[in-house]
Amino acid sequence: MQLTANIQSYNFDHVLLNAAGVMCQTTAEIDTVLASKHTGSVVTKSATLANRKGNPSPRYYELKNGLGTINSMGLPNEGFDYYMNYVATKATEKPIFFSIGGLSKSENINMLHQLQDSDFAGLIELNLSCPNVPGKPQTAYDFETTEEILTDVFSFFKKPLGVKLPPYFDIVHFDMIASILNKFPLAFVNTINSIGNGLVIDEATDTVVIKPKDGFGGIGGTLVKATALANVRALRQRLNEDIKIIGTGGVTTGRDVYEHILCGADLVEVGSQLAIEGIEVFERLENELREILTEKGYHSLAEVRGQLKVIS
Ligand code: SIN
Q1: What pLDDT score was predicted for residue 3?
Q2: Closest residue CA from atom 2 of ligand 1
Q3: Which pLDDT belongs to residue 64?
Q4: Cα of 132 to ligand 1 centre, how many Å?
Q5: Ligand 1 test: best mutation among 130, 141, 224, most atoms within 8 Å of CB?
Q6: Which segments in the chain show pLDDT lower than 50?
Q7: For ligand 1, what atom is nearest to the CA of residue 74?
Q8: Is residue 129, in this structure, part of any structural domain at all?
Q9: 191-216 confidence digits (pLDDT tens)
């Protein structure tokens, strides 16, 4: 059974990855994801130029009944140089995704110049969608600014680069973001980041469950699956064929992975469920995916990718 994918010249022997933010802040965590026999590779925590502690705790909470999670981590990370040192010294066959999430355009441009001038030979994810840094908007909801940033980036950046997007909810917005992204030689888009600024309340105390932003935080897990699938599908229908799609959001079972691929995802990332279940989640999801494909008589993911049926 072929569970492979590719982005440009990069080949992945497995379709599952971590979502940036989960199990990818320290070298030990990144090593753990890379070492799994059931991951295509790893995405590093979105880096800022300087290291950050992130938002005050509690900043992560698991909802009851497996509904998902709320987080407002605020981009805690070890700083750009830490991840640069990691990729400079790590020997691996898997193509690493180096994620950056600068706090300003100039910070992102600075990090991209350094990546451009380095020997890093993996892929770069530009995170334009973190909802959790107080006072900072989710850039990719501002279409004009997104186009300006990508214009500046691609004036000098020649390595394979993708963007991490927030969820969109309006057909007009799918059209607008796709028409901007199609102007650039993007290697991939990653859709979706968490649904920003949800609110969860503790029943016993009538109190919000996380501290930052008076309880507002990004929602992930089961609750976001339908939105994630819609974004994967809508973007696959609108983006140039050579822009590959990483589907992220609401993956708790092999069936969820299968549905992301049906909608057009090339690779699939796991965030909340990785945080809940740990590294073993990848083996379980891959086994469940294999069972579904076998039952349906498929021999490879290529037969399934983008083949969602509609009612005529
Ligand atoms: C965070 O660090 O707040 C989560 C990462 C993200 O939403 O991009």
Answers
A1: 94
A2: 75
A3: 94
A4: 6
A5: 130
A6: none
A7: 3
A8: yes
A9: 999 999 999 999 999 999 999 999 99
Q: What pLDDT score does 125 carry?
A: 98
73 CA → ligand 1 middle, Å? 6
Write out residues with Cβ below 6 Å of ligand 1.
21, 46, 73-75, 101, 127, 130-132, 193-194, 218
Pocket test for ligand 1, best of 23, 25, 43, 46 (most atoms within 8 A of CB): 46
Domain count, the chain: 1
Identify whether 162 is part of a domain.
Answer: yes
> What's 116's domain CATH number?
3.20.20.70
Boundaries of domain holding 163: 5-55+75-194+221-303
Query: What amino acid occupies position 37?
Result: K
Residues designated catalytic:
129-130
Q: Does any domain span residue 212?
A: no
pLDDT, residue 214, reads 98
Specify if 226 maps to a domain: yes
Using alpha carbons, select from 266, 236, 232, 264 the residue that is nearest to residue 249: 232
- Using the atom order of ligand 1, give the atom closest to the CA of residue 132: 3
Residue 100 Cα to ligand 1 midpoint, Å, equals 11
The pLDDT assigned to 2 comes to 84
